Structure formats: structure tokens, C-alpha cells
From TrEMBL:
Record protein name field: Retrovirus-related Pol polyprotein from transposon TNT 1-94-like beta-barrel domain-containing protein
Region (Disordered): 1-52
Domain Retrovirus-related Pol polyprotein from transposon TNT 1-94-like beta-barrel: 116-190
Lineage, highest ranks first: Eukaryota, Viridiplantae, Streptophyta, Embryophyta, Tracheophyta
Bias (Low complexity): 31-44
Entries under InterPro entries matching the protein: PolX-like_BBD, Znf_CCHC_sf
GO MF term (any one): nucleic acid binding
Length: 191
């Protein structure tokens, strides 16, 4: 019987503590919604530290600190700031590369309608347009494999003079002449 009484007593103490805790929490919520100026000036440092323990951070939703001092927010802002610098550097570099490509492409546009395309996979410069050669030596028996495994007959090799829009001339030697070629290719590796 004594055990039952002790169990009832401890049970009622637990319920009482829960009730007190709820009341205290509701008081804190009402104070945080409408703080009075007289309360804020009359608190002691012990009361301030106990109030701070009950404060919830708006950033990480944890107890004991404010958003302004939240270590997670500060770390995230530092990471974002350092990440943006790196990202800006990458943007600047890729944008500069894009401008360089456009400039090169424009410089190599010839006055006729067929532009020259840089091809990193081509081992030789190639064209199917006879009119672009300033000098051409005909030869037979040579073949070149292009994309998708297609083979084309090479009937000559020569020098091409390209005129830029600005009026400059570029001479490119060892250009293969394959009449079936649909595009003009400049081999990156042949430069």
C-alpha cells in the first residue's frame, strides 16, 4: 500500500511540474509578444541569462541565442560570400573565353558564305571548296575519315588565304581538298 501512495505522490508531482512548466512557457510567450519597457529595465543579469536560455533563434530554431549571434547563420554567410567570389571568377573566365571565341570566329569569317570551323578532332585542315585555295597540288589515292566513320577522297593539298572582316589575310598551308566535304574545318592540333 505504501508503494501505491508513493507512486501516486510522484505521479502528482510530475503532473504539477508539467503544469508549472506550461504556465511559465505561456507567460514567456506573452512577454515576448508584448514586452513592457519597465520589465526590460528591472531584470537582473541572472534573469537575463535565464531568459536568453528560453529564447528561440529565428534562423536555426534552437534555444539559447538570437539570430544575430547564430553560429549557423554566420557560417552560412561566410561560405556564401567566399563561394560568390569563386563563382564570379568562373563567370568572368568563361565569359572572356566566349568573347575570345567570337573574336576568332569573326576574324576567320571569309567573304564567301562558308565559314571556317575550329575542330579539335581533326588532324588536318580540310575543305570541299576549290575556290578558297591560293595554291593547290592535285594528288590521288588519299582518303580521310570524318565524323561517323565516313571516308572521303582527298584530291589535293594546298594553301588557303582567308580574309577577315577587318581586311587582314591569314595563310593556312597543308589544307586537304576533299570535294565531298560539306564544311571548312580548321584543325586545332595542326596550328
Amino acid at each position: 500500500m505504501e508503494e501505491n501512495e508513493e507512486a501516486l505522490l510522484s505521479s502528482s508531482k510530475g503532473k504539477k511540474k508539467k503544469k508549472e512548466k506550461k504556465e511559465k512557457q505561456s507567460k514567456m510567450e506573452s512577454k515576448s509578444l508584448s514586452p513592457s519597457t519597465s520589465d526590460s529595465f528591472s531584470t537582473t543579469s541572472k534573469e537575463k541569462s535565464s531568459k536568453k536560455k528560453e529564447v528561440i533563434c529565428y534562423y536555426c530554431k534552437k534555444l539559447g541565442h538570437f539570430k544575430s549571434t547564430c553560429y549557423k547563420r554566420i557560417a552560412a554567410e561566410k561560405k556564401k560570400a567566399s563561394g560568390n567570389v569563386e563563382e564570379d571568377d568562373k563567370k568572368g573566365k568563361s565569359q572572356g573565353d566566349a568573347y575570345a571565341c567570337i573574336t576568332i570566329e569573326e576574324a576567320l569569317q571569309v567573304l564567301f558564305a562558308n565559314p571556317w570551323i575550329f575542330d579539335s578532332g581533326a588532324t588536318k585542315h580540310m575543305t570541299g571548296c576549290r575556290d578558297v585555295f591560293s595554291s593547290l597540288s592535285y594528288s590521288t589515292g588519299r582518303r580521310v575519315t570524318i565524323a561517323y566513320g565516313n571516308d572521303l577522297d582527298v584530291v589535293g593539298i594546298g594553301t588557303v588565304t582567308l580574309k577577315s572582316r577587318e581586311g587582314g589575310n591569314f595563310q593556312i598551308s597543308d589544307v586537304l581538298y576533299a570535294p565531298e566535304m560539306k564544311k571548312n574545318l580548321l584543325s586545332v592540333s595542326a596550328f
